[in-house]
């Protein structure tokens, strides 16, 4: 550790050029294999995948749709547990036309949400991995939109969390729209419930008690998925509390397949992208989190209790309670000065860097609210409304936020904000009111209003105290095409970086290089995965390692073990097309696309 971004397994490659190929492209000398795809058997007894013979019961035993977060938890040198989120479904790509009735497609969609746990096996000494037979694994598990979860923490049982089916307000069926996540130092997986508002519709009026809350979360009753047809709890008119039971960080224990997964009210309710843990020097567990909406906030949680590093059952039980008590904070970033250029509507920093200081503003502990007029439960259930009252910094869609285990700094993907510079004025942490895109690969740059390509923010806790309340920050990357004047790559020469657009998920290799996956490239080429050293002379040198197929975003990313395996989740390949008229057929097993998880390794 501490060397300047060098690691044997992932060094010495030539970056992948921007392209629009319907495949996963990696540097010469590397090979990619498919580990799991939508429809593959997860649970023993699962039916073989057949697009014409799909059933809700079968889908609940098979790998779900639109894999997002990837966790790999080692069991021994040759085996591990692969944990994946299944964020949402693309019915237009899943079902042959005129094959299923409406109710069946909705039930299959519900069963194709959630998470998968499956045992995998390393192929010899290579970086390649394969699924083991479900019959040979007692760990394999599917979690769907119907799996019971326990609500815990201070807001559990609150009147707003009670429904007809659950008068206790403590048991929720399912997890929805699971986006990114994090693997904890105590061997569990966290997952963020993101755009949960889209699942709710209405048969009549909305409950007027919740008008303000619903509005702040985009809960309009116009959810497009129509699930109330098969499950009445998704009808807001009759079950006004069901949406309060989503939008949480969930924790599952993949090592204990019989455990009840939990939703932690202590970490607040918003459109959680994910959560990543750093153990502070004091021993407290600190969770860093983003709320992915234009103009929303960065958060952190600091546990009241300390992580117990011992490998005992008692320590394990204690660690499983860390996310139930503590303090929730929201971030305010202050710049150190500059001016807005009226010609471009961009913030030009006086010192040449977009940087400054910041404060973590406490919202509530498990016993005391710090927001006037709101109780602890109010703050945790309506976290966005609570945060609004303390004037945090409105950010450009905070996605994955993750501490770098080598340098202790925190890296946040701020994916884009088409309304920056108009409804959200520019400031030093959000400097672009206009930016350049390419309508197609090779086409000329075109200036548009807003921040279209996103940023990567680097945040350093004062004194490296992750439990503290003050930090400094700077933009590590102002993304885009390096030919575009507004881009910035930590000062690295622009003629030696890859174009990068719309950072979404981040991870780190063993020497602390940042790896960034993208979603929504507006430079005319496909999304992918990029390596960015953050120390030494190569700091800021963005290099593309992987590109994804037509219509897909790159999710997951993860390196390990020993940087020898580069994991990526290929989400929504072919989005924009249909089953009958596909724009992608990746992974080329059928005439239609299938989301899947791939691993890339030295050939
Ligand atoms: Fe599901 Fe914010 O990406
Ligand atoms: Ca500055
Ligand atoms: Ca994401
Ligand atoms: Ca991550």
UniProtKB/TrEMBL annotation:
Residues 1-20 are annotated as: Disordered. Coiled coil: none annotated. It comes from the Bacteria. This is PhoX family phosphatase. It comes from Nocardioides guangzhouensis.
């Amino acid at each position: 550790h501490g060397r300047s971004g060098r690691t044997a397994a992932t060094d010495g490659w030539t970056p992948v050029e921007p392209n629009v190929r319907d495949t996963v492209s990696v540097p010469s000398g590397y090979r990619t294999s498919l580990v799991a795809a939508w429809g593959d058997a997860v649970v023993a007894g699962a039916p073989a995948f057949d697009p014409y013979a799909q059933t809700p019961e079968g889908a609940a035993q098979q790998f779900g749709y639109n894999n997002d977060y990837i966790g790999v938890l080692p069991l021994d040198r040759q085996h591990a547990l692969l944990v994946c989120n299944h964020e949402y479904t693309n019915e237009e790509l899943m079902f042959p036309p005129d094959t299923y009735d409406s109710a069946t497609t909705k039930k299959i969609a519900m069963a194709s949400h959630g998470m998968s746990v499956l045992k995998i096996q390393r192929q010899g000494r290579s970086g390649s991995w394969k699924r083991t037979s479900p019959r040979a694994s007692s760990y394999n598990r599917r979690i769907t939109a119907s799996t019971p979860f326990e609500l815990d923490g201070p807001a559990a049982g609150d009147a707003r969390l009670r429904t007809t089916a659950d008068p206790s307000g403590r048991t929720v069926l399912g997890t929805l729209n699971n986006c990114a996540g994090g693997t904890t130092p105590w061997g569990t997986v966290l997952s963020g419930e993101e755009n949960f508002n889209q699942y709710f519709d209405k048969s009549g009026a909305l409950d007027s008690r919740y008008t303000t809350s619903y509005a702040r979360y985009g809960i309009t009753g116009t959810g497009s998925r129509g699930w109330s047809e098969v499950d009445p709890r998704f009808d807001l008119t009759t079950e006004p509390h069901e949406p309060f039971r989503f939008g949480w960080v969930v924790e599952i224990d993949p090592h204990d397949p019989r455990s009840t997964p939990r939703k932690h009210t202590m970490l607040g309710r918003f459109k959680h992208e994910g959560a990543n843990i750093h153990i502070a020097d004091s021993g407290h567990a600190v969770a860093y989190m983003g709320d992915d909406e234009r103009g929303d906030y960065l958060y952190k949680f600091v546990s009241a209790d300390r992580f117990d590093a011992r490998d005992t059952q008692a320590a394990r039980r204690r660690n499983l309670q860390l996310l139930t008590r503590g303090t929730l904070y929201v971030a305010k970033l202050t710049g150190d000065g500059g001016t807005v250029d009226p010609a471009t509507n961009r913030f030009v920093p006086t010192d040449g860097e977009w940087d400054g200081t910041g404060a973590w503003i406490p919202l509530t502990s498990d016993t005391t609210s710090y927001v006037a007029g709101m109780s602890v439960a109010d703050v945790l259930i309506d976290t966005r409304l609570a945060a609004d009252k303390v004037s945090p910094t409105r950010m450009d869609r905070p996605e994955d936020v993750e501490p770098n285990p080598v340098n202790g700094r925190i890296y946040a993907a701020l994916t884009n904000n088409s309304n920056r510079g108009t409804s959200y004025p520019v400031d030093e942490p959000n400097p672009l009111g206009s930016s350049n895109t390419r309508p197609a690969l090779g086409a000329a740059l075109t200036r548009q209003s807003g921040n279209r390509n996103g940023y990567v923010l680097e945040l350093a806790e004062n004194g490296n105290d992750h439990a503290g309340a003050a930090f400094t920050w700077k933009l590590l990357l102002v993304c885009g095409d390096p030919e575009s004047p507004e881009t910035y790559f930590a000062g690295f020469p622009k003629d030696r970086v890859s174009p990068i657009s719309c950072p979404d998920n981040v991870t780190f290799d063993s020497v602390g290089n940042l790896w960034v996956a993208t979603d929504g490239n507006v430079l005319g080429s496909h999304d992918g995965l990029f390596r960015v050293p953050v120390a030494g002379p190569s700091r800021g040198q963005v290099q593309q390692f992987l590109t994804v197929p037509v219509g897909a975003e790159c999710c997951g990313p993860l390196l390990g073990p020993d940087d020898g395996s580069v994991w990526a989740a290929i989400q929504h390949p072919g989005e924009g097309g249909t089953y009958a008229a596909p724009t992608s057929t990746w992974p080329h097993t059928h005439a239609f696309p299938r989301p899947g998880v791939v691993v890339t390794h030295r050939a």
